[in-house]
Amino acid sequence: xxxxxxxxxxxxxxxxxxxxxxxxxxxxxxxxxxxxxxxxxxxxxxxxxxxxxxxxxxxxxxxxxxxxxxxxxxxxxxxxxxxxxxxxxxxxxxxxxxxxxxxxxxxxxxxxxxxxxxxxxxxxxxxxxxxxxxxxxxxxxxxxxxxxxxxxxxxxxxxxxxxxxxxxxxxxxxxxxxxxxxxxxxxxxxxxx
Length: 193
Hints:
With about 190 residues, the chain is α+β, with helices and mostly antiparallel strands. About 50% of the residues lie in helices and about 15% in strands.
């Protein structure tokens, strides 16, 4: 049976390698630590940021839909019903609150809606009209953007820390090489070899 050897890319860091320098071992361990931290910390930071961004959704659990009547013609916008994109515009609506009182206010409605048309509006827990309700797609996009930004920021910070440590180790390694060459030159000029 033959002996097994370490893969070629791992050989410079083996303990039995006589050319192994302490800075190279530190650098290899540092690289491994930065990679492990990035793999663990970036998703965790993204999850925490997305959770924090969704805190307003927890607040809006009291938001409810209510029927309303459009009090004016909604202006038409640049989109068209044929293209499938109908933008929202602001118009006045009237609704009846849970206590039976009539209210009116301005909120987003589909462009081109006609006066007297029935539609659904969003009310806060206290019965106040929400003028610009956030759609589920907008909310998900915001959470995704917050999470990805936090994950990218964490990766950037850890990468910068690893790069700085690499730079400092290279400077230390360079000083060590200069000292060894100075010692070699001194030995050579003094007649020792």
